[in-house]
Structures are given as C-alpha cells and as structure tokens.
C-alpha cells in the first residue's frame, strides 16, 4: 500500500511492500524506482534474500524519514531447525555440521529462549551486510576470511516458540532495531550445546505498519501501468 495523492507532484511517498522470497531489498528498490519513475527512493531496513515480508520504502522528500522508520520495533515469524548448522545460519550456504537432538527437551528450549529475551548482547552473523574496513562482512565470509565482530546490545521483547514439530521450532519475535534473527537462532543452538539454522523468516510488522497493509510487487507495478 502506498500513501500519496496521485493528483499532486510527488512530494514523497511511503510505500509498503511484501518482499518476495530470493529478492534482495535493493532488487525491490530498483523495481519500484523503474515502475513508479521515482527520482529518489530508498528502503527503511534490509531483509535478507531468503526472508519475506514487510519492507518500507520512501520516495522524494520522504526519504528524510528513513532513519525514523528504521528505528522502530519489528516483529518476525519463522522456523528454525535444531540439529544442523550452516555458515550463514540459513539456507544460503550448505550444511557444515550435524548434531544429535534426542536429548533436548521442550523445557530446555524454553530456558534457552528465556536467556535470549530482554536486553542482550548479540554478535551479528558473519554473513551480514555490516561494513568492516569498508567492506561488507558477507563479502569477507564468502572468501573464507575470519573477521572479529563486536557484540552489540539489542532488545528482544518477545520470543515465543512452538516445539510441537521438533526438531523444527516455529517462533515469533518482537525486537529492537539492529537485532539479527539469525544470531538468535545460532545462539539458541549454542545454549542447547547443539546447532540450529533458520529455514524460514517473515517480517510481519515495523512499528505500526503491518504486512496486511502491504502490496505485492505485482500490485504496485499494475498501479503504474499506462
């Protein structure tokens, strides 16, 4: 959904998009820029290619408010799988280790979740877009380079899990800006003396903006067809 007055010159728009699977956030920006013929457009918070869900984009003068939207609380749903790991903590990279999960109980999972809730220190994943020495971490990781990554404080206000399909664990997380869900998944596995990777992730809310109010890429493009 976009909020704008089609009768006026573009003073800047706020656009809500449901990012498709495998698209980068920049893919979405590029597609919408071409479809809407915007001179200036940017997104307020990256989603990984293997994640779907709510992406906020701003055009024109509204781009000045991107930092404001990036700072808002976010909500995610998804699935993690215990017993295996990948370097990227999702399915972007191949499995590199396997663990026995037979001794893990629901109570142990809940205790690990408790330790990852609240104000916590978190180390971002090595496959992330953080810049170190002017280069993205994922570029270094793909070359096999090791890099020291500083921890950062984040807030996880809600971390709910459903273990009925163990070793698959469905989750809902509400968190602050800068929180990496893949790091929470990685750390959950470590707290259980095991391993974990993320098999699905969807962003459902940013502040007061919800995925139910977002357009698909196709819906947005159709609106601008001549």
Give a topology summary.
Layout: E1 2-3, E2 14-19, H1 25-36, E3 41-43, E4 52-59, H2 66-70, E5 74-82, E6 84-85, E7 97-98, H3 106-115, E8 118-122, E9 131-132, E10 135-136, H4 137-142, E11 152-162, E12 168-175, H5 181-191, E13 196-206, E14 209-210, H6 217-223
Parallel strand pairs: 4-13
Antiparallel strand pairs: 1-2, 2-4, 3-4, 5-12, 5-13, 6-7, 8-11, 9-10, 11-12, 13-14
Protein architecture, described:
The protein is an alpha+beta fold. The chain has two domains: 2-71 and 208-223, Pseudouridine synthase, CATH 3.30.2350; 74-206, 2-Layer Sandwich (Pseudouridine synthase), CATH 3.30.2350.10. It is built from six helices and 14 strands. Strands 1, 2, 3, 4, 5, 8, 11, 12, 13 and 14 form a ten-stranded mixed beta sheet that branches. A hairpin with an 8-residue loop joins strand 3 (41-43) and strand 4.
Condensed summary:
This protein has 226 residues and is α+β, with helices and mostly antiparallel strands.
Percent in strands: 25-35%
Segments where pLDDT lies below 50 for 5+ residues? Answer: none
Largest sheet: 10 strands, mixed
Question: Can you name the CATH architecture of the largest domain?
Answer: 2-Layer Sandwich
Order of helices and strands: EEHEEHEEEHEEEHEEHEEH
The total strand number stands at 14
Quaternary organization: single chain
What is the CATH H-level superfamily of the largest domain? Pseudouridine synthase
- How many helical stretches? 6
Q: Could you tell me the CATH topology label of the largest domain.
A: Pseudouridine synthase
Instruction: Name the CATH class of the largest domain.
Output: Alpha Beta
Structural class: alpha+beta
Mean pLDDT: 89
Radius of gyration: 19 Å
Helix share of residues? 10-25%
Shape: globular
The total domain count is 2
- C-alpha termini separation: 19 Å
């Amino acid at each position: 959904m976009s909020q704008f007055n089609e009768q006026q010159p573009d003073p800047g728009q706020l656009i809500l998009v449901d990012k498709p699977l495998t698209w980068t956030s920049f893919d979405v920006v590029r597609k919408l820029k071409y479809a809407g013929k915007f001179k200036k457009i940017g997104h307020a918070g990256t989603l990984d290619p293997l994640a779907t869900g709510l992406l906020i984009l701003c055009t024109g003068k509204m781009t000045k408010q991107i930092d404001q939207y990036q700072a808002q609380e976010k909500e995610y749903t998804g699935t993690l799988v215990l017993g295996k790991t990948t370097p990227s903590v999702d399915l972007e990279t191949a499995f590199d280790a396997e663990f026995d999960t037979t001794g893990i109980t629901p109570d142990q999972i809940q205790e690990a979740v408790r330790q990852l809730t609240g104000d916590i220190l978190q180390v971002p994943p090595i496959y992330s877009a953080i810049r170190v020495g002017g280069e993205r971490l994922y570029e270094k990781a793909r070359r096999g380079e090791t890099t020291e990554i500083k921890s950062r404080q984040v807030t996880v206000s809600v971390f709910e899990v459903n273990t009925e399909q163990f070793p698959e664990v469905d989750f809902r997380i509400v968190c602050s800006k800068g929180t990496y869900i893949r790091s929470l998944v990685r750390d959950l596995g470590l707290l259980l003396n095991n391993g974990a990777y993320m098999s699905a992730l969807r962003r459902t809310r940013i502040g007061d903006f919800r995925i139910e109010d977002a357009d698909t890429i196709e819906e947005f493009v159709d609106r601008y067809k001549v």
